[in-house]
Amino acid sequence: MRENMTGRKWTVRLAAAAAGIFAAAGLYAVPACAAAVPTQAAAGGFRVAKEMESQTMNRVWLLPDSDTYYIPEADVSWMDDEELMLARNEFYARRGRKFVTKSIRDYFNRQSWYRGYIEPENFSTDLFNRYEQANVDFIVSYENRRSQIRQQQAAQPKKENRLDGDNPTKEKKAEPGLYGEMTSTIGELNDTYGEITGLYKDALMEGWSRQDYETAGMNTLAAGFESPEDLGYMYRDLNGDGTGELLIGPMNTQLYGQGAVLDIYTVQDGIPVKVAASEENTSYYICEDDTICRELAKEDGNWELDYLDLEGTDLVCKDVLVMDEGRDAEKPWFVIGNTDEYAQDPEGNLTGVTAEDFDSISYEDASALRTTYPADVLELVPLGGE
């Protein structure tokens, strides 16, 4: 079983890149998840990983250990189309299938672990275990969904961002746009949230420690980033009140997953209030429909996805999907039938829920629920921007 990769993606993505560096040098070739490092160590190696990233992304495994667990969306959302295609075929390559397409054949022939001995016409997916088959199916559905989204976007008028409430023709600088039907202007939001973004920028420039971030009430995961260019921000109205929420997240989606955010702030009585913050085993993502996805990783490798709406300053849970092999290794997918039946705290946690309250569902239904809430592409502006 993999080492709790889902919840440690803030550091494991870096470990994967580091594993590729050493493998390229011929030092070792092990699954990247075995090289997980603490956040403080990640901060020290971030520069090296960034410099080598383009050369090492495909050197070891795109989806290490994915024959032992059900992959979450965050494991593939950072991939481009070619990487998705290779990740899907990695399952076949792992089982010894040969490839007809030259680009795919050449790629896997360069991998030291690959041994192709089964002709394509003789290969059977019966060789896959339940994880491999489910993960291949999920990647196929993910590729199809990505294609559908692009077709829909191409058919829609291009979204225009208001750059300034008083002067919409003002030349665009390095500052966030306004998304949705907001009544607040960029100037107003900059005034409201400026102290927070400025503090993060200063902290990154000065190389604060985790303790420094914690003392200041800021997200300690930021200690794993090296410069203000590595973190970005944007304003987006998630609760429909006309005032944009502040999202702070990583600029590099290849390392941290599409739609990933460290912090979400809203405004209450004119004062910024933090409503969500990613932690080592809890990651937040923004979905295309403004749903907030909370991914909880368990120490035993199982995970939970909570789909939340922001209502005022409270998070309200509307869907829950759990992957728990401890209950049923063959059919580990479970959902809450109706979240409205349960009391919730301000963070969107259902109270009084027991294992018996979860309904078992098929993999197909679980996959359909996950694809209902695709992670969005966030147009973040680097904190280091002028």
Task: Walk me through this protein's architecture.
The chain is of the alpha+beta class and 386 residues long. It folds into 2 domains: 150 residues, Methane Monooxygenase Hydroxylase, Chain G, domain 1; 197 residues, no CATH class. Helix content is 32%, strand content 17%. The chain has 9 helices and 12 strands. A 7-stranded antiparallel β-sheet has the order 3-6-7-8-9-10-11, covered by helices on one side. Strand 7 and strand 8 form a beta hairpin. The N terminus is likely disordered.
What features would you highlight for this structure?
about 375 residues; alpha+beta; Methane Monooxygenase Hydroxylase, Chain G, domain 1; 2 domains; 7-stranded antiparallel β-sheet; 9 helices
Summarize the structure.
The protein has helices at residues 9-24, 39-56, 81-94, 102-109, 130-155, 186-206, 210-215, 253-256, 363-372, and strands at 231-236, 245-250, 260-261, 263-268, 271-277, 282-286, 292-297, 303-311, 314-323, 333-336, 358-360, 381-382. The protein is an alpha+beta fold. The protein has 2 domains: 6-155, Methane Monooxygenase Hydroxylase, Chain G, domain 1; 186-382, no CATH class.
